[in-house]
Input
Amino acid sequence: MEFSFSALPFMLVNLACVVVAVVFFLYTRRKARVAQKLIAEAQEQQKNVKRDVDAERREAQLKMKDELYKKRQEFEFEMKRDRLELERSHSKLQEKYEMLETKEQRLEDLKRDLQLKERNLTRTSDMLRTHEAKLKSTYQELVTKLEKTSGMTIDEAKRTLFDTLEDEVKLANAKWVQKVEDEARETAKERALHIVVSSMQRYTAEQVAPHSTGVVHLPNEEMKGRIIGKEGRNIKSLEMATGMEFVIGEVPDVITVSGFNPIRREVAKRSLEKLIIDGRINPTRIEETVAQCEKEIEDMIQEYGKQSILEYNLQGIHPEIVTLLGKLHFRTSFTQNVLMHAKEVGVFSRMIAQELGLDGNMALRAGLLHDIGKAVTAEVEGPHAIIGGEIAKRCGEDPFVVNAISAHHEEVPFASVYGPIVVIADTISASRPGARRETLAAYLKRLEKLEDIANSFEGVKRTYALQAGREVRIIVEEDYLDDERSAALAREVARKIEREMSFPGQIKVNVIREKRAIEYAK
Output
């Protein structure tokens, strides 16, 4: 067989076609197997999904059945509860219906009884009218016989009888009124004693309140010379800066601060103590120290005032009054701290008011503020009670509180019961043991001095020192002094007291001239 090279390309083409056909067949067969595999997997996944869906559907159906069962149970429970409520309501209504029937029956019985009583009353009324007619005729016959027997008409007999009864009633009424007054006076005395003693027993406080003095102790005599300074310039600077007088007496190592203003006196005392500790004493340092102490005292005043208000939980206190309360901490009355005294008076006033069934907070307010006038007596002239009342009125306090402050020394009339309550509380606080250090001898000596000054004038009949020396009452000879001379006597006594005595606040000089005419009927 002869091979032809011209047929070789054709054979190669056929061979390539066969190879391509074989490759395509193999690729197609492989893809068919992969497709069959994917179809099988898809069918398997479809079966799984269908199985899961069926399971979830069955689970959902079971849950739904459970929910339906629970709802049915709850519905049946609610129905049972409502049925029980209805049964109870029905039973209550039945009971009320039976009660109403019973009451209706009782009303019927009462109606029959009332009708029976009405018929009886009608018969009785008829009988009474008959008897009344008989009594009237009998009475008229008796009156006629009595007029003939006594010789008096009926009007004259009535007047005589009424006069006799009136005298007897007046006498009995007077005796009854006297008895009631005696019983009321005795009861009131016992009740007042109980209230005061109870208030004093319930209150607990320090027997001796803290107080400050105007004495500064020096470490040595050399310090006294440094305080005085060259040609006295340091002591003059101190007095100019503080407004106080520094008394250097014969007592060694002691300087006394003298002045009527307690705040300035405390500033001066603190300034001097700081200068002694610091050791640098010159006019410039003195001014700086005084300014620093003034600021400290102002802060202390506000703090003491706020503490006093917060301690008793008072509301609506004006800032001016808060400041005045703080100033009272540096004020003393016969060595008694005035702020401590004001707090005590407030507590006692509240106790007494509560015992009497009154407003305890109003009494507390009036008692706490009763001495605020003392905080400004160094700048304002007049009785501290009147000054305090004006301040309280200006700061918007209640009129009862204002009157209680103004009247606690009885310089104005009382407008309410809170005024006497504050007076009683003030007396209790001032007289309790340890409150004030003035001895009885010094107290009596001061009162005697007042009376002696008044008795030294001509025309004075009697003199009385009242209100712990705050008032001197002078009764003059009415025939010796006329009204104009009596007014002049009051001025002269006041001026002599100012010259010869030292006292805080003011003293009222009251001259009384009275003419009486007395005769006796025998």
About this structure: The first helix runs from residue 8 to 150. Residues 207-211 have pLDDT under 50 and may be disordered.
